[in-house]
Each structure stands twice: as structure tokens, then as C-alpha cells.
Design a protein that fits this description.
The chain has about 700 residues and is mainly beta. About 10% of the residues lie in helices and about 45% in strands. Helix 2 packs antiparallel against helix 3 and helix 3 packs across helix 8.
């Protein structure tokens, strides 16, 4: 049987945003008004140079480009909760050189922003938000603000007070200086430093000024006009890059081409043109109409089974996405054991399977029990009453009673009753998929490699399988790869360009994996082989995960040896032990998953990784991480590792249901410090069905 899995695509979120905008058919329209919803020049909801108190809809995800000489800005912003907006940006300075580059390249500065909504708008009160720009790195454009926005008919008004870059006009003395004299002066960052840290002492300090603006929704719906008052004084630009400013008032317009693509233009500083474009989507509502086989029609009356259990097993997989291990009958109950192979929702698989069982089994069977496994590991059992299911399908009036009769619990007892059917999962599966690896922000400029991956797997039994991935380079520009950053740590990641450029065809994975359920809430996994592009070795993982619990704990330990650049079977001299103790907490705060890992990284440094993510109703998971180690000054540029990622259910983009996922990740720099082994599977992901998640909501959705 074909097994579900995770497809890891090294695409940047930039490529994803553009691709999603180009395939707008798969995006559900969030139905939000255009007024106040545009991306500013710096990224994030705002006017042009200034922010507003507005937010994107929950799940909003936008990539923007803008140019106001001498700056080009590339930004990516997202809305993980209704009250928090976050994002990052690159600012290309056209008249300043990138000192680390070998050629004549413009300087590129990186920054991170966030904005928190303090109060929602109502009839009398404006929406109020507080935020900060460029809080990490060199802080060239760092600034903080408090802003309010109020809608009145076709107008949206914003007014705020800004500090730092947003307050350089110094309209008045910083009001916070009355509370503490430390707010009188701003301690900045030294240009050209390593950056990567947050200068908390500078927040809301130094010069302050007013900013704001008005947006007007014209009678022609796609067009919005803008009037903006800036708080920045361009005579105080960073890197001594002072600009003439004839006016603090900026004029602009936004033109919505589609639900996902918007053009921007403006006249700023009284003497400079601005042009921009933004691509947006909504991660919470992305979906695709399905062309799955319809659920089986219910038979008029229970039948007497003809003994063709093999045929029933095939139907269960083809229509219900249930790969059957075993079928038992225990008195008036039929127990079906297996693993999900197609539908993301176990509720859908169970209701489809229930129809088939009703059509094939005699009237003596009163209860259907589904025992769910993954890679041979028992996870949970769901119990359905046959008569209640039939009644709910016949009439929606019985749907509530049917749902109340379902119960799900951990698998506590071994199989009982008469064994009617048994099959061992075994066989070969494969897929061919594109992969785009990109790097932007380094001294060598934009680097990419487009490859074709042949991903295959041979399954020996329920618990053991051999996986292999062969990568072929279709096109690249890695001949421009020159710069390898300074590092006093072992080169465990910064030779990435050599791995990508050395050969056109390589083995990125070849490993044997075996899983086991140790009983109760304990699971284990062992693996060995060519574990990833850069390392081979052996390892194992142990996971404690209570059924439907909020907390889980895992431990992985690995011995690895560095692979040669040609990605075949030769090895380099470097070897090490690496592993982490990881705690998982499914919080009640916006349904966020928090992970903390403590351990030893590939370069031998010790530290912690913090990871926070949120899964939307669409199945898309948005997250970010930060890693801090004891490498100190040896860590190199950036001081600590950080990045964001998206885990995408391919089900949301295809017309046929699938449990496969794709992973997209972005990190500003490739470092040796804080580098983790890129393990192909993790037990927490494989045991996701230990959590009930949205099971009850999905049961209700299936009856509508």
C-alpha cells in the first residue's frame, strides 16, 4: 500500500507567496474590505512609509517588493493570530556596497518586525496597536510606534507616535522621558556589526514624532488613494546616506489587480517616486475542490457477508483511505485495524468505512471499532454504533445523537475475538518531484538550484522500511558561489555550496527505519544510513506521548559522520554525537504548539532551540524557531540561529485527498552554530493521531 509521508521542499516563502498568488483558484476569499488592508513599503499592514493599527485577516501571508530610491525593500509578513502580525525584510541600499561581497554588489540589510493589537475597533473607539521595526540585526531602520486607526465610511484614518527611525523629525520631547531619563537618548547599533541581537535598551527611546495618514476607497473598487504624514527626517539616514526631503507629506495609490496581487505607487519626500507590488494569500482558508470517489451508498438492508474479506479490505483502502492490517469480530463488534493512507480527517475515513461495513456485514454486528496505527505503532481506537450511523446518514435530525454516541480512547487491550483477515503492509512506492533550493541575502547574491528528486520507499512490514532519495540538478547558478563566512566551529553547514555544486546527481537519503510501540504511552524509532545530504550515521528516538494530552517528551541520540561533497558513499573525517531532549506543549493560546529542545548540535556546541507554531483549520502550519548555544563569538554572523517555516498539506492544493505534506523553510543565514541533524522522520509527527485535534468538529462537518 502507498504510505503517507512528508515531502521536504527547500522553497523559500517568497516563492510560495508568488506561486499561491498565481494559483488563486485554490485560495478561499477571506471577504475582507480592501480599505486599510494593503501592505506598506516596509511590509505589514500600513500606508506607505508608516504603519497603521490594521491587521491582515487571520492566516494572512503577504510578500511585497517596493522601491523608493535609494532603497529596494523585499518583505514577507504573516498573521499567526488575530492580534499579532510579524515578518521580516531585506533592504537593498543601492548606493552602498556589500563589503563582504567579491563583486560590485549593493549592501543588503535584514530586519524583523512585529505588531500587537491592543484594542479592536468598535463604534466609538479606534483600533490601537503597538509595534517595532527592525528589532534584530544592525538595527539601521529600527523604530517603535503606538498607532490608532478608525474607519469612517470610505475613509480610514491613522495617527501614531513613533520613536527611532519613525521619530527622527522630533516634533516634541519624548514623553517617556518624564518616566525615566534613559528614554532621552537612543543607544543604537554599530553599522556593520554582527547583529543578530535585540538592543532592548533602545526601545521607545530617543527622538519622537507624529505620523499618520488617510486612505480613501474610491467609487472604483480596485483603487484606494493615500495621504500620509511621515515622522522620519531623511537628513538622519543610517550609513550617512542622507537624503533631501522637500515634504513630510506623501501621496500614493493602491490598485488591486486580483484578490492576491496589488500594485502600489506614490510620490514621497516631495521629490521621489515609489513603485511596489505585493502578493498575498490566506493560509487559514486555502482549499481545493475535491474529486474523490463518493462515499458508498447505504444498502437498503444489512447483508450476509460472503467471506470475501480481501475484497472488503481493498474497498476500505480505495474508498475510505484505510490500509487494513487486520479484521476481527468480537461478539457484536467488528474491529478494523489499520493506518490512514488518504484522508487528513480520520472522521471522514471512519464514516466512509462505516458505510462499507454496513453494506457488507450481517445484522448481528452492532458496533464498528476502528483501531488506528501509523507505521505499525498503535495510536487510538474510535467506536461507532452502527444503527446511529445509518440513522444519521438517512436524516440529519439524528446527526447529533450519532456524534454523541461516538467515543475514542487509547488502545489499552490487545486484539480479541475471531481473526477474519490479516495483511502485512509490504511493497514499493515512489514519486518524482521538483525541488528548488534558494539563498538570498548573502554576499554572492541570489543563488538557486532546481533539481528533480526521485523519492522511493520499500516497506518490509508494518514497522520497517527502506527509503531512498536521488537528486538530479536540472539548472543552477552555483558558479557564482564564492563566499564561505568566517567560523571557528567545525564546518558542519557552511560548506552547503560545495555539496550543491559538486555533482549533478547525488543521494540525499538512503536509510532503514524501524518503529515500535513499547506499550502504554511510549514509542520508539531507530534508523541508520545516509541520513541527509551532509551526514550519515545511526540514531534512535524515544517518545512519551499520553493519549490526547497537551504535553509530550522526546529524546533523540545520533552518531553521525560527515559525507563527502559528491553525495555518494565516501566520508570526510569529521564525526560527532548529537541529540536533544525535547518537550512539546499544545497550548490553549491560539492553539499554538510550543517546543523546547536542549542538547548537543552538530558542531559540538550546547544549547536550546525554541519553536512555536500554529496550525490553521486548513491544515497549514506556520512556525518559527530560534536557537541559542554556548558557541559565543565563535557562532559567527547573527549571534544565534532563527527562521520560519510552513508545513503545507498537499491536500489543500490537489483535487484528490492526500495525507502528504510539503515543508518550506527560510533562514537568513547558513551557520555552523546551532545546526541540527535533518532527520527524515520524527516520532511526534508520526504519532499526531494520538491527539484528537479537530476530530469532533470534523465529525460534525461530515454530516452537513
Amino acid at each position: 500500500m502507498k504510505q503517507p509521508g512528508i515531502r521536504t521542499l527547500s522553497l523559500t516563502p517568497l516563492a510560495f507567496a508568488i506561486a499561491m498568488a498565481a494559483t488563486g483558484a485554490a485560495i478561499a476569499d477571506p471577504g475582507q474590505p480592501r480599505l486599510g488592508s494593503g501592505q506598506g513599503d516596509f511590509g505589514g499592514a500600513g500606508l506607505m512609509q508608516t504603519p497603521s493599527a490594521r491587521m491582515q485577516p487571520l492566516g494572512g501571508f503577504a510578500f511585497s517588493l517596493s522601491r523608493t530610491a535609494p532603497y529596494r525593500r523585499y518583505s514577507l509578513f504573516f498573521q499567526p493570530t488575530a492580534w499579532l502580525e510579524a515578518g521580516f525584510r531585506y533592504v537593498e541600499v543601492e548606493n552602498r556596497r556589500y563589503l563582504a561581497a567579491t563583486g560590485d554588489r549593493n549592501n543588503l540589510d535584514k530586519g524583523i518586525d512585529f505588531k500587537v493589537r491592543l484594542r479592536e475597533e468598535d463604534r466609538y473607539w479606534p483600533q490601537i496597536a503597538i509595534g517595532a521595526r527592525d528589532i534584530g540585526g544592525t538595527g539601521l531602520f529600527a523604530g517603535e510606534y503606538l498607532v490608532a486607526s478608525k474607519r469612517w465610511h470610505d475613509f480610514d484614518f491613522s495617527l501614531g507616535i513613533g520613536w527611532g527611525y519613525l521619530g527622527n523629525q522630533e516634533d516634541f520631547t519624548n514623553p517617556l522621558a518624564r518616566l525615566d531619563e534613559r528614554f532621552e537618548r537612543r543607544s543604537g547599533f554599530s553599522s556593520g556589526g554582527d547583529g543578530g541581537s535585540v538592543n532592548l535598551g533602545s526601545l521607545f527611546s530617543g527622538r519622537s514624532a507624529l505620523f499618520g495618514g488617510i486612505e480613501y476607497q474610491t467609487p472604483w473598487e480596485p483603487l484606494v488613494l493615500q495621504l500620509e504624514l511621515e515622522g522620519n527626517d531623511y537628513r538622519h539616514e543610517p550609513q550617512r546616506n542622507h537624503q533631501q526631503q522637500d515634504s513630510r507629506v506623501n501621496l500614493g495609490a493602491r490598485l488591486q489587480l486580483t484578490d492576491s496581487i496589488e500594485l502600489k505607487a506614490g510620490w514621497q519626500r516631495g521629490n521621489t517616486a515609489m513603485l511596489g507590488i505585493s502578493f498575498s494569500t490566506n493560509l487559514a482558508t486555502v482549499s481545493q475542490v475535491k474529486r474523490d470517489p463518493p462515499p458508498a451508498d447505504l444498502a437498503a438492508a444489512p447483508a450476509t457477508h460472503d467471506g470475501d474479506w480481501n475484497g472488503l479490505s481493498r474497498e476500505l483502502e480505495a474508498n475510505a483511505g484505510l490500509g487494513v492490517y487486520r479484521i476481527h469480530q468480537d461478539g457484536s463488534s467488528v474491529v478494523v485495524e489499520g493506518e490512514p493512507t488518504r484522508y487528513r480527517s480520520l472522521a471522514e475515513s471512519e464514516q466512509r468505512a462505516g458505510r462499507l461495513l454496513h453494506n457488507h456485514l450481517g445484522s448481528e454486528v452492532e458496533t464498528f471499532r476502528f483501531r488506528w496505527h501509523e507505521r505499525g505503532m498503535a495510536l487510538r481506537e474510535s467506536v461507532h454504533q452502527r444503527d446511529d450511523l445509518v440513522a444519521a446518514i438517512d436524516s440529519s435530525e439524528h446527526a447529533v445523537a450519532y456524534r454523541h454516541g461516538i467515543y475514542s480512547h487509547a488502545l489499552l487491550e490487545p486484539e480479541q475475538g475471531e481473526l477474519l483477515y490479516e495483511s502485512t503492509p509490504r511493497g514499493f512506492s515512489y514519486s518524482l518531484e521538483p525541488q528548488l533550493e534558494q539563498n538570498f541575502g548573502g554576499p554572492d547574491g541570489y543563488l538557486y538550484r532546481l533539481s528533480a528528486n526521485f523519492d522511493s520507499e520499500y516497506r518490509f512490514n508494518a514497522n520497517g522500511w527502506l527509503s531512498a532519495t536521488l537528486s538530479y540538478t536540472v539548472d543552477d547558478n552555483l558558479d557564482k558561489y564564492r563566499y564561505v563566512g568566517p567560523s571557528d566551529l567545525p564546518r558542519v553547514r557552511t560548506h552547503i555550496g560545495d555539496y550543491l555544486a559538486e555533482t549533478d546527481i547525488g543521494i540525499s537519503n538512503l536509510q532503514y527505519t524501524h518503529t515500535g510501540h513499547l506499550g502504554g504511552d511510549w514509542y520508539a524509532m531507530g534508523y541508520g544510513g545516509l541520513l541527509e545530504t551532509m551526514f550519515a550515521g545511526v540514531g534512535g528516538e524515544l517518545l512519551y506521548r499520553p493519549f490526547n494530552g497537551d504535553v509530550a517528551v522526546g529524546l533523540d541520540v545520533n552518531w553521525v559522520k560527515q559525507r563527502d561533497f559528491d553525495q555518494r558513499f565516501d566520508m570526510r573525517d569529521y564525526s560527532t554525537w548529537t541529540g536533544h531532549l525535547t518537550g512539546y506543549w499544545q497550548t490553549d493560546i491560539e492553539d499554538m504548539l510550543a517546543k523546547v529542545s536542549v542538547g548537543r548540535y552538530l558542531a559540538g556546541d550546547l544549547g536550546m532551540t525554541f519553536d512555536v507554531s500554529r496550525e490553521f483549520d486548513s491544515g497549514v502550519r506556520l512556525g518559527g524557531w530560534a536557537t541559542f548555544t554556548d558557541a559565543g563569538s565563535d557562532f559567527g554572523e547573527g549571534s544565534f540561529d532563527k527562521g520560519i517555516y510552513l508545513s503545507l498539506p498537499l491536500d489543500a492544493f490537489f483535487v484528490r485527498s492526500t495525507r502528504q505534506r510539503a515543508q518550506l523553510a527560510w533562514r537568513p543565514l547558513t551557520r555552523d552554530g546551532g545546526a541540527q541533524l535533518a532527520r527524515r522522520q520524527a516520532l511526534y509527527d508520526l504519532t499526531e493521531e494520538r491527539s484528537m485535534g479537530r476530530y469532533w468538529e470534523q465529525q460534525a462537518d461530515m454530516m452537513r
